[in-house]
Amino acid sequence: xxxxxxxxxxxxxxxxxxxxxxxxxxxxxxxxxxxxxxxxxxxxxxxxxxxxxxxxxxxxxxxxxxxxxxxxxxxxxxxxxxxxxxxxxxxxxxxxxxxxxxxxxxxxxxxxxxxxxxxxxxxxxxxxxxxxxxxxxxxxxxxxxxxxxxxxxxxxxxxxxxxxxxxxxxxxxxxxxxxxxxxxxxx
Length: 187
Prior knowledge:
The protein is of the alpha+beta class. The chain has helices at 6-16, 30-43, 86-95, 126-135, 141-148; strands at 70-74, 77-83, 107-110, 158-161, 176-179.
């Protein structure tokens, strides 16, 4: 997949090259690599003599400048609706192995406005959350697809996450959060 720098990919492959697990012997793309490594670390956490923290891969996609957030009030709270740009939509679709036209999400309602990465200037977006959760092994591709497609609901009344830029791996200073309601706008 084009959004992974070769150095990051080679770094991860090299880290697991000494591992005796046969499922890790033929890693040639992002999805198979992270699926295999995640499965391996979950099922056989102490089998590798070489232990490391996985670095999140970065992308070098040109990103559209997002529209200004739509600010609104709901239950005495101020919300910022981050409208998905077409490049965010494409980035999410590529990570989740889906067609971008299937992602009917218009935007996401946050309690904070977007922030701009101090490392590369990319604005925070839902693509960063998907990237962070997927490559850190927090959520599966299927879970994130179901959630973003509206097939499953948020299990907690409130969610808060740190954000690491998917382009340069710089951590944003402010966490981002959203409550279950109001629901995210869809097409």
